[in-house]
Amino acid sequence: MASNPGNSASRGRYADRLDPELWDYIDEVNSWYPPEIIAAPIAEQRAVYDRMCIAFHQGHPEGVTASDGLVATAAHAIPVRRYRMAGKAAAAIVIYYHGGGFVLGNLDSHDDICAEICAGTGFEVVSADYRLSPEHLHPASFDDASAVFEWVASTSTLPIVLCGESAGGNLGAAVAQATRRHSRHAIGQMLIYPGLGGDETGRSYLEHAEAPLLTVADIEFYRRIRAAPGQALDDPTFSPLGDRDFSGLPPTVIVTAECDPLSSDGEVYRDRIVAAGGQAWWREEPRLVHSFLRARSTVPRAAEAFARIVADIGALGRGEWPY
User: For the whole model, what pTM was predicted?
Assistant: First the structure.
């Protein structure tokens, strides 16, 4: 789940590379996970994660209303949560795919983040509670992410912005690629430290293989637990960087953390969209780690990075290119 740094002596080269406030956050996250948790049943790991998310929850900004619903499919119903600003007409709608390695997370785990995006942009936000692994292997999460897109596209006339964080960034990119020629295709996408199936010999994978809160070993675990037998790693619905065509994608902003093995995925994805003639911007936030959104209330760098993310979502939803 996450390695425990314990004390400053075990923090290695990150001891002085990260701000003290960020180390306080890392220590707090790790305090939820005893060493034996990695061998615990998935249900127990989820319960610990859910309790941690509750502890970090910041509440809803004033004026944000939230309502739960279901998106019906032929096989099952997908829970969604819709956020609106009371008394204000939205100019766009954001579809938010939460993080959690395709194993953890739900509508509650990222509830306050979605509410703050709603308040900061004035847009509607729809959070999707896609099916999780290992009970539901690929393409279950992608299918659910796509179904929520189709539901939003058919029930709202507002411009659509896709937004995903970590595993949700993978889903957002995969949906953007699969729906790029849809009559209601997204007008923008915001990917926050996404895992896009990049080359693990890339810069950040090597430099930050043992980074706090996410290691290359963690990434490999989440990839294995999600994959069905015989899964092709170049399947773009599984690994968006496995696609061979990056044309026609919506204007894209990718934000990564400097001390995160996944950072190179954002850089490569930017380069491929630009090479295909599209608009893409990659920003690597300095001195931050994977999952920094949850640190936004206590870590100034994380708060500033989140404010930039919200501003970028706002620009994308208005049809403006922020860069």
Answer: 0.96
